[in-house]
Structures are given as structure tokens and as C-alpha cells.
Amino acid sequence: MNIPRAGDERHPEIREAVRALCARFPPDYHRDVDARRVYPEAFVDALTRAGWLAALIPQEYGGSGLGLGEASVILEEINRSGGNAGACHGQMYNMGTLLRHGSAAQKQRWLPAIARGELRLQSMAVTEPTTGTDTTKIRTTAVRQGDRWMVNGQKVWTSRVQHSDLMILLARTTPLAEVKRKSEGLSIFVVDLREAIGRGLTVRPIPNMVNHETNELFFEDLEIPHEHLIGEEGQGFRYILDGLNAERTLIAAECIGDGFWFVDKVTAYAKERVVFGRPIGQNQGVQFPIAEAHIELEAANGMRWEACRLFDAHAPCGAQANMAKYLAAKASWEAANAAIQFHGGFGFASEYDVERKFRETRLYQVAPISTNLILSHVAEHLLGLPRSF
Question: Quick one: pLDDT at residue 179?
Fold first, then answer.
């Protein structure tokens, strides 16, 4: 029986091309990169040369001019092929803030070079140690002094800084006590990391359980040119939401890719692994968790496409982006648990890749936004329940 590939098969040409590229980087490549805790430079370079990381950049600036739906397919297929798009997905979702709110001069300055692969826009500095996801309370400040801004403060969990040229920075430009709404007075800047590191910006790596390069940042009188301010001063919180909605939707697609990778892996193993004279996949105790994960992945996929549709239509999509991320992260984690459980001891062996992917997909229960905060968002904004914090 020829069972079709599970999951939504929209944009087949993109899928086939990305799968072909990923096939040049087999499991032992990703296994080696993970074991040595290094950046998958060759893999990211190949994606860049093929134009996949410039998918959202308009054609007039050298990109493909695709929508978030197509971009999500690229990242989904990377993860479904056994890779980890976390090494490069920042360029996809960070692009939204610059594309939608940058000036014509700023786009012309940076986008063509990004599209050619000469610049990387991989990092976004928003989260701080003392505020977490309470973004309006951030303490990093930017004070204007003539044609420059002076930045002081601290950020944490800022990823891919060592492998990026540019970074999106959210800083408070008007003190919280002086604004009518706490979401006002925040501004977005593009930081040229090549000039900033060592000249007011200190980067401290944070070792963690996955091969995910992330850092703590310290700003001490870092000077940023005024022309690096994105959009209108004080409106950065509104601007950053575009990037965050894109981020959550794209992460959902990655989780869907992870989830189907686990389902494919454990299904094949359960058919072949014989214990007590029968394939373990014949047992309902094995079948049902795998089937449940598959069902939840298909449901998450539907919400992913709804979030993409709304984002590309420039319609409000915060609820859909959050729900897609919640459903997909939950489904991929359940698929991961089934895969490691039914592989038994082999699930913990590096050569099977299950333990690596297991660690990688666990991240998305916590970041880029925790599942509990998504539930709070839905309770308050969709159901009208009293705000809990």
C-alpha cells in the first residue's frame, strides 16, 4: 500500500527544492554539528545561496517576494528533513519589522545586501532578565543626542549574534512614567553588530541544552546613528508585533516539521521492530500515542495556514499566530515523546537522531513565548476573561 506523505502539501515546488538541498546535509552532518556545538555554517550558506532566506524580501530588492505561507514551508521542510531551522529562522521573522516599517532608504541600504547573502539579519534583542515577556517594562534605554542615540541596558536570550551582521533592538526612548499607555515610548533600531561589539556592546554566550547559540547582551553608551531608527519614535512596540506574529507562525511551521519527522521516524521503527514475535506497531499502546500526535499535527497545520493567510493580508493575526504556535509546539512535543518512548534505549542513542530532535523541539514549549502566556492571551483577548496579570 502506497501511503501518501502526511501533512499539508501546499507549495510542492518549494518543498521539493528545499528537500533536495537538505538531502545534501544528511543526519550525520547535523549530528556532528550538534556534538561539537558549532554553527551549521555550510548548511546556512547553502540556504542563503539558494535564496531561501531571502524569500520574504521583495523582488525589487533582490529577493523572491514570497509570503509568510511560502516562508513557513521552507522552515517546515528544513525541520522535517532532520535539520534545525533555529540556526537561521531569525532572518525570516526579523525581516517583517524592516519590510513593513522601514523607510525606502533603509530598505535600499540593507535589503539588497541581505538578499545577496552579504549581510545577515539573524538577531532580535527584546527580552530582558528582569522583565521576561513583560515587554513594556523593559529597562534598556535609548537617549537621543543630536544625530545619534545612546543606548544603555541589558538583554538576554538574544540568539545568533555571533553569526549575524545586523540586529533589531527594542529600547525605551520615553520613560514609562511619561507615557499615557505603557506600550508607548518604545522604539526600534537596527544595530550594526560589526561596529557595535566591543564599542559599547558586550556579548556573553549562554551555554544551554541544545546547540542553539544564544547570548546575554550588555549595552554601555552604545552609539546608534539616528538613521537606524525604524519608523516613528515611540511606536516600536506596535512595530515589533509584526515580527512577533511572524515569529510565532514560523515557529509553528518548524514544530509541524519536527512533529512529522518524529511520526515518520517512529512509525517506520514500529513496523520493523519485532518483540515477542510481533511488530511493536501492532500494539494499540504504541499505535494510539502516535496516531494522537498525528491528528494534533494536522489540526495545528490548519491553524498555521490561517495565521499565514491573515498575516499576508495585513489583517490582525495575533490570536491565530499564538494558537498555531501553541498547537504545533504541543503536537511536536507529544510526537517527540512517542518517538523516544517507542524507540526504547535506541531513542537515547545519538546515531538515531531522536534524542537530538527531542531536545530541540522541547524549546518551543518555553520560547519564543511560553504556552501559559498563550493561554492567558486567549483567555483575555478571545474569551473576554479578566486579565490575570
Answer: 95
